[in-house]
Design a protein that fits this description.
Chain lengths: 219, 459
């Protein structure tokens, strides 16, 4: 009877024993890498905004407080985007004819809001409240990164659930004194390792079981 | 093979007059001759039609969601769970035949193990479909069910029996598939050597993994086959134990019972043997395999069915007794509601099917007559489905609070999905018969008189 397979089939069958696990491992690695990448999470990506508004300039150089524009952050779930009138408080007086600010003046003239691109966008099935985080000592920079050094705002963190849970499971590692929440350059004091635990107690931060309960965020 | 031929004049395991060659030719001809009996086409057509209906039912389910089924509170587990448990139970006989009877050196497993294992695999496939589509979004099921390091940094609830079920069933499927495939390799090589068409020779050649039948090949084969039998043996007991935990871990009266694991395992083997009989009796007739699947096989399977049926009957009686003896009014009400509540016809039909009908098997003439045996097996198949219906529905529909009582009515889509999986099973099984030897050729050769001659392979 003639042979069905060529002699080289032996080597191919042996190679395939190795190749299939390697291929499966590679596919697994690729899926993990892609799902953690900025391409999927938006981490580290900047977007072109209608006006090239620089937080680095306004916060870092001029020293404007976060709450001057984002007025509702302490009382409401949503930290508001300021209306054009807030811009015009200053820009009716300075840089009144700068070409870069023309969209702002147009918005003010026509009474149509500027259409900003949202950078930090949580999924709709997540309930997030800014006011409780600010009240319990989570600094702006803890989640949003060094906004005072961002010419255009980008997403500092992955905003993945694992990132949320990291803090909900270990709040003492991330919270700071309430009076430092809006301080962009605050550093954790090296000589006070017990500060986190103390603040968790002082601020009556809920038990980890409650912080990590499904319905705390998914309501 | 037969320890006491003088005092135990049972039918032979293979009819006289067969040689190695006649066995090989007879079994491989089903696959290689290219001619199938007309009934093969009829049954496969029915199976394919039902598969189409299954596809329709699932498509509509994915478009509309599980609201198209009859499930709601209080009965959140309807047909999907009933059918899951029924199908997965059926698979158990295949594993028992292939693994436990192998380790116990029961020669009569030889001609029925191949298609019984195929039955296991297809039954587990039908079973696995139900929890997946019960999620409503099966494409997300992998991330709900399997623990893997994910971007949410959370794990499935390891304290839930539902996640144990995922592991039990996926292990069961993997081991069953490997066991079946390993057992097929020498036969695939036979088909490769006997096939005329070049494409067939290449296909069977690839599948037989270079089997040449050398002594080293046989030694390795025996090792791996025994190892897999050892792996499968605990699965016969563990898989349905874990399935029973889906119920027994809950606190619902009618589910929360320590008797559930053994009672489920016995029920699984009972249903499985009934299904093996349901398949074997028509098959040996259609393909003229009475020489290989003899009366001895049918009678032995009937005996196992009777034995496991008695264990199941004991389980039902225990449930009724516990309801009374526990002095717990919820337990007592549950069993009373089963017997006399709105679902009473189901309960009493179940008693008729699963307790009364198999009593016919005490009679030797019934055990050795294909048609009555087939009818008993069919009744048991229905009875075991009813058993799961009674356990799931009557326990849930009236539990602790009368204000939350309700009724469960399956919809057209429930029935279409269930009957559709029957079609899927039939289709897969008849394609298997067409493409692979339904009886193990090389193991049957070991049953031939030649194999017991000096120098023969008594394996």
């Amino acid at each position: 009877m003639s042979q069905i397979f060529a002699r080289s089939t032996n080597i191919w069958s042996k190679v395939s024993i190795l190749a299939v696990p390697i291929l499966v491992a590679f596919l697994g690695w690729a899926v993990v890498t892609i799902s953690w990448s900025g391409y999927v999470t938006g981490q580290g990506l900047t977007r072109d905004q209608p006006v090239q508004f620089s937080h680095a300039h306004h916060v870092g150089s001029m020293g404007i407080d976060c709450r001057y524009c984002h007025t509702t952050v302490e009382e409401s779930a949503f930290a508001n985007i300021p209306p054009t009138k807030t811009c015009m408080n200053c820009h009716s007086q300075i840089w009144t004819s700068a070409p870069i600010l023309e969209p702002v003046r147009a918005s003010f003239r026509d009474n149509t809001p500027l259409q900003w691109w949202r950078v930090h966008d949580l999924p709709d099935f997540v309930y997030f409240n800014h006011s409780i985080h600010v009240a319990k000592g989570v600094g702006c920079a803890t989640c949003h990164g060094p906004v005072d050094r961002m010419p255009l705002v980008y997403q500092e963190n992955t905003l993945q659930m694992s990132w949320c849970l990291d803090c909900h499971r270990n709040p003492q590692k991330y919270i700071r004194p309430r009076d430092q929440v809006f301080n962009m350059s605050w550093q954790r004091p090296a000589d006070d390792p017990g500060m986190g635990e103390r603040l968790v107690k002082d601020y009556k931060i809920a038990d980890v079981r409650q912080l990590t309960s499904c319905s705390t965020c998914h309501r | 093979m037969d320890p006491k031929p003088a005092t135990y004049p049972a039918a032979p395991l293979i009819e006289p007059g067969h040689t190695f060659g006649s066995i090989t030719d007879k079994i491989s001809a089903v696959v290689l001759s290219g001619r199938q009996p007309i009934s093969w086409f009829v049954v496969l057509s029915i199976g394919l039609l039902l598969c189409g209906m299954l596809g329709m039912a699932i498509t509509w389910l994915l478009i509309k969601g599980t609201g198209i089924w009859g499930i709601n509170i209080p009965v959140g587990w309807g047909f999907a769970i009933i059918n899951f448990v029924w199908w997965i139970g059926i698979g158990h006989a295949g594993t028992l035949i292939s693994a436990i009877l192998l380790l116990l050196k029961q020669g009569w497993r030889t001609s029925i193990n191949r298609f019984a294992e195929a039955m296991t695999i297809f039954a587990v496939m039908c079973a696995g479909l139900f929890p997946l589509i019960h999620t409503g979004r099966p494409w997300l099921a992998a991330y709900w069910l399997f623990p893997y390091p994910n971007t949410m940094s959370i794990w499935p609830q390891f304290r839930s029996p539902l996640i144990w079920d995922v592991f039990a069933v996926s292990t069961y499927f993997t081991v069953s598939l490997l066991f079946w495939y390993v057992g097929l390799i020498p036969d695939l090589a036979t088909l490769r050597d006997k096939a005329k068409h070049r494409g067939l020779r290449i296909a069977y050649g690839m599948l037989s993994l270079g089997w040449r039948g050398s002594a080293r090949h046989w030694q390795r084969y025996e090792h791996i086959y025994l190892l897999l039998a050892g792996l499968s043996t605990p699965l016969v007991l563990s898989v349905h134990t874990v399935v029973s935990f889906d119920f027994a871990i809950g606190i619902v009266p009618g589910w929360h019972a320590t008797i559930f694991p053994p009672y489920f395992v016995a029920g699984a083997i009972y249903a499985g043997f009934a299904m093996v009989l349901t398949l074997a009796i028509p098959l040996r007739k259609i393909y003229g395999l009475e020489d290989f699947i003899t009366m001895r096989h049918l009678e032995n399977m009937a005996k196992v069915t009777l034995l496991t049926g008695l264990i199941v009957a004991y389980g039902y009686m225990s449930e009724a007794f516990f309801g009374f003896y526990s002095a717990n009014k919820y337990e007592g009400f549950m069993i009373w509601n089963r017997m006399t509540g709105p679902y009473w016809p189901y309960y009493w039909t179940l008693v008729f099917c699963n307790i009364l009908t198999p009593q016919w098997l005490w009679i030797k003439r019934v055990r050795t007559s294909p048609l009555p045996l087939f009818m008993v097996a069919m009744v048991v198949n229905c009875g075991m489905w009813l058993e799961r219906f009674v356990i799931v529905i009557t326990s849930l529909h009236r539990d602790f609070l009368p204000s939350s009582w309700g009724m469960y009515y399956p919809t057209m889509w429930d029935w279409m999905t269930f009957v559709g999986t029957l079609g899927l099973f039939i289709t897969l099984f008849f394609l298997f018969i067409r493409a692979l030897p339904m009886i193990s050729i090389f193991e049957m050769r070991s049953m031939a008189p030649e194999a017991r001659m000096p120098g023969g392979k008594g394996h």
